[in-house]
Design goal:
The chain is an all-alpha fold. Helix content is 70%, strand content 0%. It folds into 2 domains: 3-60, Homeodomain-like (Arc Repressor Mutant, subunit A, Orthogonal Bundle), CATH 1.10.10; 66-200, Tetracycline Repressor, domain 2 (Orthogonal Bundle).
Length: 202
């Protein structure tokens, strides 16, 4: 079978990057809504509005698709963290920037944030951790250690302090997703960061 035979007539007119993006976004949405294992290739094909051939042309398997979503999501998170948080000078400014990063990202792209928090397929990635227990934990522990060493955060367990930071932020995100918080979380950045800081500062 030639490559062109895998595509419908309409798909042949559509740029490959656009088709791939449709498949990527459909899979991401379904992984969040249904879970990785409950999402089938036909589910993704229907959601994306593409042919099965087009999907397999871009992604040889559901596992490859999951790995690409994971790679993209983590790269986006780390890029945002380096730009918006690590670049700040004071520990308080970093706490506030981290709160703002996740709250703004949730409002802009709730599906991606939910994927990072809850939906990464453990078996496929050979990992058993969400972002709160892996990349996010590494970053918040680093932030806390710097704050303790600079005298801005009182001496305490770094994991306890990191849990204070991520726990409050994630709980606010959950309340927003569940509909208990009706307004944009952007309105709560300052208050949330201040309450986190009260729990940590000297």
């Amino acid at each position: 079978m030639q490559v062109d035979d895998k595509f419908t007539a309409e798909e042949k007119k559509t740029p490959n990057t656009q088709l791939k993006e449709k498949i990527f976004n459909a899979a991401l949405k379904l992984f969040v809504e249904k879970g990785y294992h409950s999402t089938s290739i036909p589910d993704i094909v229907r959601e994306a509005g593409v042919s099965t051939g087009a999907l397999y042309h871009h992604y040889p398997s559901k596992e490859d698709l999951a790995r690409e979503i994971h790679k993209y999501a983590i790269e986006e998170y780390l890029k945002k963290y380096d730009k918006e948080v690590r670049s700040k000078n004071s520990t308080y400014d970093k706490v506030r920037a981290y709160t703002g990063l996740l709250f703004r990202w949730l409002e802009h792209d709730p599906v991606m944030v939910q994927y990072l928090l809850y939906s990464r397929p453990r078996e496929i990635l050979n990992k058993c951790l969400s972002i709160c227990s892996e990349e996010g934990l590494q970053n918040t522990v680093e932030l806390v250690e710097q704050g303790i060493n600079s005298g801005e955060i009182r001496p305490m367990s770094t994991f306890l302090a990191a849990s204070v930071i991520s726990g409050i932020i994630v709980r606010m995100i959950e309340l927003r997703l569940d509909g208990f918080i009706q307004h944009s979380l952007v309105e709560y950045i300052e208050a949330t960061a201040n309450n986190i800081w009260l729990s940590l500062k000297i």
